[in-house]
Specification:
about 350 residues, alpha+beta, Phosphorylase Kinase, domain 1, Transferase(Phosphotransferase), domain 1, 2 domains, 5-stranded antiparallel sheet, two-stranded antiparallel ribbon, 11 helices, 11 strands, about 35% helix, about 20% strand, globular, disordered N terminus, disordered C terminus
Length: about 350
């Protein structure tokens, strides 16, 4: 009996088709019940879906009827483009659904039948949840040195950057357009995976920037040029990335309000407060290597949120700066971080102006 049980356990799960029927997704999420809900956003709700007779779990994103998604063939094409992506820091899409159904809706004083397009995207399920909850949820603490330790947070920062590098450096680049802590999921080993491509744009080979009249995104993470002029480019993602790096490093939450869609007050506060003296105080028990890493991450994050998009570093320079940190320390002994406020020239040592 033990042998038979072992054979049964090793039997691979049947592969799901790429295009999944709406009724199937409705069934595995228990009719999209609140009990199966993982999280929600203005553009859709994420549910846990349990495959029948398999106990395999997937995450099902049901987009809102008014979500800013391309319909029909364009939606299918863009989802299948993202499905083809294979990278350790990108959440794997396992299927999608795009079906039109009849729905009875009230119009003025009567009911009419309307065509409703149901758009859903299915992802691999990651039980650790999103970065937002892990950093700032009930289980997290506010201290910079407690909660998720610095080594793990630094690994998360580098992983997010590697995932974004992969997207931006594809032969046909993908701009995510909605990077924020809620859209970074963590696996069991705390490896970050960029998720939720509902707003992503696939750029043509010769296309580096475009404009749109319909600006949608998450308050507090939208680049100014996108918010006010509808300009979309890789630097839109860099702006959002900078805010994420700052939040992870400082453990201070970006709390945007209606007057601060690009989080300028939060950015100004971090730029003013997080001096070398403040870093040494917050990370008082850390060694010089950790203090240097923290300083570098804050400098990189602040460089990413420059108002002028042309001043923001490209993703390959960001990855190089973070990956080169350890190699630089191996070559030269790192002096301890000064307890005095940094001079105007000291920033170049950590930034992108090093010769």
């Amino acid at each position: 009996m033990a042998t038979g049980s072992k054979t049964q356990e090793s039997k691979p799960s049947p592969e799901l088709p790429t295009e999944l029927p709406y009724d199937f997704l409705k069934k595995i999420t228990n009719d999209f019940s609140n009990d199966m809900k993982i999280s929600g956003s203005p553009f859709g709700t994420l549910y846990k879906g349990i495959i029948p007779n398999d106990d395999r779990v997937i995450a099902v994103k049901k987009l809102q009827e008014n979500a800013p998604m391309p319909a029909d063939k364009t939606f299918t094409k863009e989802v299948t483009n993202v499905m083809a992506l294979k990278h350790e820091n990108i959440v794997q899409i396992v299927g999608y659904c795009s079906e039109t159904s009849k729905k009875l809706v009230q119009f003025d004083s009567r009911y009419i039948q309307a065509d409703i397009n149901e758009s859903l995207i299915c992802y691999e399920y990651l039980p650790k949840g999103n970065l937002e909850d892990n950093l700032f949820g009930p289980q997290a603490t506010s201290s910079a040195e407690s909660g998720i330790n610095w080594d793990t947070r630094f690994k998360i920062i580098k992983g997010i950057c590697k995932g974004l590098h992969f997207l931006h450096k594809l032969d046909i680049p993908i701009i995510h357009m909605d990077l924020k802590p809620e859209n970074i999921l963590l696996d069991d080993n705390m490896v970050p995976k960029i998720a939720d491509f509902a707003l992503s744009r696939v750029f043509g080979e010769e296309q580096t920037r475009l404009c749109t009249q319909r600006v949608v995104g998450s308050y507090g993470y939208m680049a100014p040029e996108y918010l006010y002029r509808g300009e979309i480019s890789a630097q839109s993602d860099i702006y959002s990335l900078g805010l994420i790096i700052i939040e992870i490093t400082t453990r201070e939450k970006n709390l945007p309000d209606k007057d601060q869609p690009s989080a300028r007050s939060f950015i100004d506060k971090v730029s003013k407060d997080w001096t070398e003296m403040h870093i040494a105080d917050k990370y008082g028990s850390s060694n010089a290597e950790v203090l240097r890493q923290v300083k570098t991450c804050i400098d990189v994050g602040l460089k990413c949120v420059e108002i002028d998009r042309k001043k923001r570093p490209p993703i390959d320079k960001i990855v190089a700066a973070l990956n080169g940190l350890h190699a630089i320390q191996m070559e030269n002994e790192v002096p301890p971080v000064s307890s005095t406020p940094p001079s105007k020239k000291s920033g170049s040592r950590f930034g992108f102006n090093r010769k």
